Amino acid sequence: MIESDIKQLFSRLSVKLIFKQVKLVTVESCTGGMIGKFATDQAGSSSWFEAGFITYSNQAKIKLALVPVNLIDKYGAVSAEVADAMVFGALKQFPTCAAIAVTGIAGPGGGSEAKPVGTVCIATRFSEQVKTRRFNFEGDRASIRLQTVKEALILLLSMNFD
Question: Which of 57, 59, 54, 61 is nearest to 86 (CA)?
């Protein structure tokens, strides 16, 4: 059921992006490319999807998304600060695009008391607008990842593309 919600959200997003002549770039960690996969599942996505980075490791976040090492050292890879840096790094490379970045702990392991499994940070950016949120999703790995994709799209759709 959540997959049909995601498809509907992408349908809305694609119309908005095409109308505004904006393309999407993604930087994904815990979702491992799911946002890009759902985007490119849509016929015609080449008219509004520019690129996707899978930055699963800290090193990939640093090299591909241009995240400063000190942010990861200070806040951890799963943090609003790192999500912001990921989305900002994407737009350094694709400045006219809208961007989504996600980083989190999908489980089943890897969580801590401070950041339990299901902790996800999502950042979206277009032009000077930035929206960042931290979520605490419940469920198994697949469910957490799908919830992340859905909430990332909702966050991006709430932005003004004018």
Answer: 61
Q: What is the mean pLDDT of the chain?
A: 97
Q: Does the pLDDT at position 152 exceed 90?
A: yes
Q: How many domains does the chain have?
A: 1
SS3 116: coil
In a domain, 85, yes or no: yes
Is the distance from CB of 101 to CB of 91 less than 8 angstroms?
Answer: no
Res 162: pLDDT: 77
Instruction: Give the bridge partners for 27, in sequence order.
Output: 53, 101
Quote the distance between the C-alpha of residue 136 and its chain's center.
15
Answer yes or no: is 19 within a domain. no
3-state SS, residue 124: strand
Name the residue range of residue 114's domain: 2-8+24-157
112 burial level (CB within 10 Å; 0-12, 13-18, 19+): exposed
Under 8 Å between Cβ of 122 and 106: no
Query: Cβ(87)–Cβ(27) under 8 Å?
Result: yes
Helix %, strand %, coil % of the chain (to 5): 45, 20, 35
Task: With CA atoms as reference, report the closest residue to 13 among 90, 97, 94, 134.
Answer: 97
C-alpha 17/C-alpha 119 separation (Å) is 29
Domain contains 50: yes
